[in-house]
Specification:
The chain is α/β, with parallel strands linked by helices and 197 residues long. It is built from 7 helices and 5 strands, in the order E-E-E-H-H-H-E-H-E-H-H-H. A 5-stranded mixed beta sheet has the order 3-2-1-4-5, sandwiched between helices. Helix 2 packs across helix 4, helix 5 packs parallel to helix 7 and helix 6 crosses helix 7.
């Protein structure tokens, strides 16, 4: 990589994991560096994956212990995964300044009346915060995009039309190979925005 090359990391954050895309190059010509799957929980352990559902089922005191254990585990997993991705990038002569995170919602979970919906919202915020904290610990600034607004936000930041964004996403998808679903596309948009920041 040349001295002018940059890097960006993007993640589509889900319950218990994130789809990550690393881009290098310039905002005008992003290049796929790597795709990764970041496990933030033991997906076979419901308490690890959905700690706020456990809190809902077990009561506040017992549930709080489950949430605390899950947070420690998720924080350790996130920090290790991001640190390894940064090492790979630095070995190639580039280092990102930002990480873009695509999330489903930005609603305050405590404003939600339905306990089950609130548990889902708390878990969404939980995994986003785990990645933000880990990124901050590694010197990365976090940028958040809402899924429903991600394409429009990226188009504005990158000064591209939606058609131009889709052409680049399709091109990157061909290099990446399958699967190339919406999660990968959103993570790529987030990485592209991070690359431009």
């Amino acid at each position: 990589m040349t001295n002018s090359a940059r890097a960006g990391i993007g993640c589509r954050v889900k319950t218990g994991y994130a789809t990550a895309i690393l881009l290098v190059g310039s905002p005008g010509a992003p290049v796929l560096f790597r795709r990764a799957h970041i496990l933030l929980a033991d997906l076979d352990d419901v308490d690890s994956r959905q700690p706020y559902h456990a809190e809902l089922e077990r009561g506040e005191r017992a549930g709080a212990a489950v949430v605390q254990t899950a947070r420690r585990d998720a924080q350790r997993r996130a920090a290790r995964a991001l640190k390894n991705l940064l090492k790979e990038l630095r070995r190639s002569g580039v280092a990102p300044r930002s990480i873009g995170l695509v999330v489903g919602s930005n609603v305050d979970p405590l404003t939600l009346g339905n306990p089950h919906i609130r548990a889902h919202a708390l878990e969404g915020r939980f995994y986003r915060e785990v990645l933000e904290t880990s990124a901050e610990g590694l010197g990365l600034r976090s940028l958040t995009l809402l899924e429903r607004e991600a394409f429009d936000a990226a188009a504005g930041t990158l000064n591209r039309s939606l058609t131009q964004l889709n052409v680049v996403l399709t091109s990157i998808g061909k290099v990446a190979g399958r699967p190339w679903r919406r999660d990968e596309q959103l993570a790529t948009l987030a990485a592209w925005v991070a690359l431009a920041s």
